[in-house]
Every structure is written in C-alpha cells, then in structure tokens.
C-alpha cells in the first residue's frame, strides 16, 4: 500500500528594488541584498528595512497571516488531500528615491526662525515680535 504524505508549503518573501543591490534587514537583522528571496518560518508581523547608499531608506511593516488550511485540524486533511501545496509568496517591489541633500531642502522657514530668535536676545522671541513694525 502506498501512502503519500504532503509537505508544508513554504512562506517566501521576495524583495526587489530599483535600483538593485539594496541592503535588506528583516526585524533589524541583515539578511542580504536585492533581489532577494527568503523563506519565512513563522507567520506574524515583521519589520522590513531596505537601504542603499545615496537613497532614502524604506521601512515597511509586513504581515504573514496563517492560512486556514495550515491550522489544526485542517492541516492534517489538506496535507493528505493535496500532497503538493502551493507556496505562500509575498512580493515587495520598491522604487528607491534619491536622498535629498541638506542644500536641496528648503531651509527658508528655519532660517527665518533662527533670525527671529537671534534678534530676540536672551529673553526669548516675545521681545523680537515687539520690535517688528
């Protein structure tokens, strides 16, 4: 008598970035560089951090949910009835944005506030507002 037994489907995470080569951390642990494929052993919320020199880092919360067919007692029947289950694949595609330099940022509000505080003197900004016409 031939008895077939199934194997559990894998949870996999695919991370792709444009441009490729970004460093990937999962729950603050380095796991590789993009393009990257990982096997996830536990369901639940995970924190994904993708970073590349010269680009803004991207932080995402992702969640792997448990499928009904993987919970007891259903898993016993689904493994016997479907010996070749499909993997649960989550694909994360990210377009990384170039990092803005401090010179490129609009600093005029900061400079105006700094000038107001400079004019205010030791007593604070209320003195500076009285001096203005």
Short descriptors:
133 residues; alpha+beta; Immunoglobulin-like; four-stranded antiparallel beta sheet; 3 helices; 34% strand
CATH classification, class level of the largest domain? Mainly Beta
The whole-angstrom Rg is: 26 Å
CATH topology of the largest domain: Immunoglobulin-like
- Tell me the major beta sheet: 4 strands, antiparallel
Describe the structure.
With 133 residues, the chain is an alpha+beta fold. The protein has two domains: 11-95, Immunoglobulin-like (Sandwich), CATH 2.60.40; 101-133, no CATH class. Helices cover 21% and strands 34% of the residues. It has helices at residues 74-81, 108-120, 125-131; strands at residues 11-18, 23-26, 29-33, 36-40, 44-51, 58-64, 88-95. The strands form two sheets. The chain has a four-stranded antiparallel sheet with strand order 3-2-5-6, with no helix packed on it. A three-stranded mixed sheet has the order 4-1-7, with no helix packed on it. It is elongated, with a radius of gyration of 26 Å. 8% of the residues are buried.
